[in-house]
């Protein structure tokens, strides 16, 4: 009885200690501004295309928390190695080569945004401190600060209908042989299902990245139905032909 009580208290204590970090995870945080060298820089607003939304998301893969952040398909990734309820740090694991259109107002902002992260860039990133707060509109605000005092400000709110309408999905090749690529213009947690034409579930996969692949090499030739869901709602359905 004492051991059981101790286990329950320990579990509750750990949940309480990392409550804010758990709030940080599994959400698509959208950047609103940065503060670089004491100067406030607001995200450009003359382009409403979702390709230019700067986002941050932390997902758990097995026992590893992975952070991805960026815009225009230019994504910085790191594995979080240490975290608390107010800070985190990690190992740099990769960076995509895509960039914003150099003629857009986001090109300059892109460079400034990554300075918040890469001003401390090495194999070890951080430590970064963070703070989450709630506002009156039932949304949340996040501030991430690097060790130089530079800040990135983010907001989170539940996905709205207009956000779903602006979501861009690229699925290729179709017909497919070995690998099916599924790319998005935003980072979020989504579910992919692949079913036979008669409704039998073939594959089910949780994805948490802009760029994803499904191995189709073992599928028989024929027509399949691909469905993509987010927050319990189907946002894309498409016929896939396996050659």
Name some characteristics of this structure.
single chain, 243 residues, alpha+beta, Lipocalin, Immunoglobulin-like, eight-stranded antiparallel beta barrel, 4 helices, disordered N terminus
User: Any idea of the CATH class of the largest domain?
Assistant: Mainly Beta
By helix and strand content, what is the structural category?
alpha+beta
Q: What shape does the CA trace take?
A: elongated
Number of distinct beta strands = 16
Number of domains: 2
Task: Write down the secondary-structure element order.
Answer: HHEEEEEEHEEEHEEEEEEE
Task: Tell me the helix content.
Answer: 10-25%
Summed up, the helix count is: 4
Give the integer mean of the pLDDT values. Answer: 78
Q: Quick one: biggest sheet?
A: 8 strands, antiparallel, barrel
State the CATH topology of the largest domain. Answer: Lipocalin
Structure, described:
The structure is a single chain. The protein has 243 residues and is an alpha+beta fold. The chain contains 4 helices and 16 strands. It folds into 2 domains: 141 residues, Lipocalin (Beta Barrel), CATH 2.40.128.270; 81 residues, Immunoglobulin-like (Sandwich), CATH 2.60.40.3080. The chain is 17% helix and 48% strand. An 8-stranded antiparallel beta barrel has the order 1-3-4-5-6-7-8-9. A 4-stranded antiparallel β-sheet has the order 13-12-15-16, with no helix packed on it. A 3-stranded antiparallel β-sheet has the order 10-11-14, with no helix packed on it. β7 and β8 form a beta hairpin. The radius of gyration is 20 Å and the shape is elongated.
């Amino acid at each position: 009885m004492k051991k059981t009580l101790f286990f329950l208290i320990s579990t509750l204590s750990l949940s309480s200690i990392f409550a804010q970090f758990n709030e940080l995870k599994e959400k698509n945080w959208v950047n609103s501004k940065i503060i670089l060298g004491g100067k406030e820089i607001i995200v450009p607003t003359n382009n409403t295309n979702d390709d230019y939304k700067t986002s941050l998301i932390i997902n758990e893969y097995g026992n590893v928390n992975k952070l991805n952040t960026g815009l225009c398909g230019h994504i910085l990734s790191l594995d979080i190695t240490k975290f608390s309820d107010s800070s985190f740090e990690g190992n740099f694991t990769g960076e995509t080569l895509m960039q914003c259109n150099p003629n857009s107002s986001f090109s300059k902002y892109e460079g400034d945004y990554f300075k918040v992260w890469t001003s401390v860039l090495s194999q070890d990133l951080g430590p970064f401190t963070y703070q989450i707060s709630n506002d009156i509109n039932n949304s949340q605000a996040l501030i991430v600060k690097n060790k130089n005092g530079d800040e990135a400000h983010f907001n989170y709110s539940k996905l709205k209908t207009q956000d779903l309408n602006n979501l861009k999905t690229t699925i290729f090749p179709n017909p497919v042989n070995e690998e099916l690529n599924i790319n998005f213009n935003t980072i979020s947690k989504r579910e992919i299902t692949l079913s036979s034409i008669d409704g039998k579930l073939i594959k089910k996969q949780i994805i948490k990245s802009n760029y994803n692949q499904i191995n189709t090499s073992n599928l028989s030739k024929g027509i399949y139905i691909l469905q993509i869901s987010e927050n319990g709602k189907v946002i894309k359905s498409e016929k896939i032909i396996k050659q």
